[in-house]
Amino acid sequence: MSKKLTVIGRGTAGCYAVAHFHRWTDWEIDWVFDNKIKPQAVGEGSTLDFPIDLETNTGFNINDLESIYGTLKAGIYKKGWAHGDEFTHTFPSGNVGYHFNAVMLQEWLMKHFSCRSRVRMVEKNISHAEIDSDYIMDCSGKPNNYGDEYYNSECIPVNSVYVTQCFWSGVKFQYTLAIARPYGWVFGIPLLNRCSIGYMYNNNINTLDEVKNDVKQIFIDFDLTPSDQTNSFNFGNYYRKNNYNSRVAYNGNASFFLEPLEATSINLMNRNQRRAFDLWNGKKTELQVNIEFLTDIAEIENVIMLHYFAGSVFDTEFWKHAQQKGRTNFESLVKNNKFRQLMDGELDNTTSYGTWSRASFTQNLKNLGLVDYLN
User: Fold this and answer.
1) What DSSP element (H or E) covers 303?
2) Distance from first CA to last CA of the chain, Å, rounded?
3) Can you list the domains of the chain with their CATH numbers?
4) Within the chain, what is the greatest distance between any pair of CA atoms?
5) Measured between alpha carbons, how far is 244 from 249 in angstroms, rounded to an integer?
6) CA atoms of 46 and 65, how far apart (whole Å)
7) How many CB atoms lie within 10 A of CB 280?
8) Contact, 307 vs 365, CB < 8 A?
9) Is 303:262 a contact under the CB 8 Å cutoff?
10) φ and ψ at 82, to 5 degrees?
11) pLDDT tens digits in sequence order for the chain, 375 residues long
12) β-strand pairing of 150-152 with 238-240
């Protein structure tokens, strides 16, 4: 008898989970969501696994990219970090990620699965106690309160973002921007019709007005025209203490949120759903998958914090605060056995650490001026 899975939520994590389990199981899937809860829509960037998974699980390929206003992502362009030299964290030749409009992707996937016999869509706000499925993948979004179920990330120095949509008539670059600025750093996500510019900062150190004034330099540097479509909000950096059990797993913002430097979210979503699959199919234990999740979080934090330890060209209160936090993480990282093995060439190039391959570490450690610290 076929088993049954309930996926809660229609954001990127919920859509991704339905696609994964529909492809790799014969289970019946109830996809439950509340249309009153609007998925977040800033514009997203992926790592290399996402285009492959989309095509494998749904048939979505590069010919469909225009339908979600997507663009190819060749890497991450960085400027202002460390001594200020610009560089691009490139992907291996022939490999690309995607930039995409998250809401449009969600709509594409919902349409794709609306005619699949094993997927039943239910518009309802529901609790776990009301669900009769064998398994639950909870992608219901950011928790109302963190309580005892979550850890707060103690190291990440940003907790707020100011986003501006800059509409254009043609795509001006094929990489994500990650630009260090006096009060934090700025991401840029190029879509077909617009570029999303987001200024990440700490609202305990700097004000929104300071950020609004400073981001004008980004518009000048990249020849962007800001619109009046803006958004600003504060956020926590957090993750679940126990992300999986024998019946329930969490994903997306219900599982974790770590700031978007290096675009690690979708990769971690993918790992979460694969671990849930392994647990529910008896391939791994509950203890194993929860340890793997916490290990991933720690590695991603270390990758993010390398940038803050490297510092920037700006001698500001924010960067003094951020670099000190980065130093603590760097001292922990260099003592990590897996990291040392990766750097010493004892692990092959398919081994990743916090979504980074050895090649990515080589690029970034060199360009962030951290090689001497390792030596």
Assistant:
1) helix 286-310
2) 58
3) 4-69+100-154+241-283 (3.50.50.60), 295-374 (no CATH)
4) 64
5) 4
6) 13
7) 22
8) no
9) yes
10) 50, -115
11) 689 999 999 999 999 999 999 999 999 999 999 887 776 655 689 999 999 999 999 999 999 999 999 999 999 999 999 999 999 999 988 899 999 999 999 999 999 999 999 999 999 999 999 999 999 999 999 998 888 999 999 999 999 999 999 999 999 999 999 999 999 999 999 999 999 999 999 999 999 999 999 999 999 999 999 999 999 999 999 999 999 999 999 999 999 999 999 999 999 999 999 999 999 999 999 999 999 999 999 999 999 999 999 999 999 999 999 999 999 988 888 888 888 888 887 877 778 899 898 889 889 999 999 988 877
12) antiparallel
DSSP H or E run through 340: helix 337-343
Please count the residues of the chain. Answer: 375
285: three-class secondary structure by DSSP? coil
| Helix (H/G/I), strand (E/B), else coil: 47 | coil
- How far apart, in whole angstroms, are the C-alpha atoms of residue 263 and residue 368? 18
- What's the rounded Cα separation, in Å, for the pair 24 and 287? 23
Dig out the tokens for 238 from the structure.
């957090």
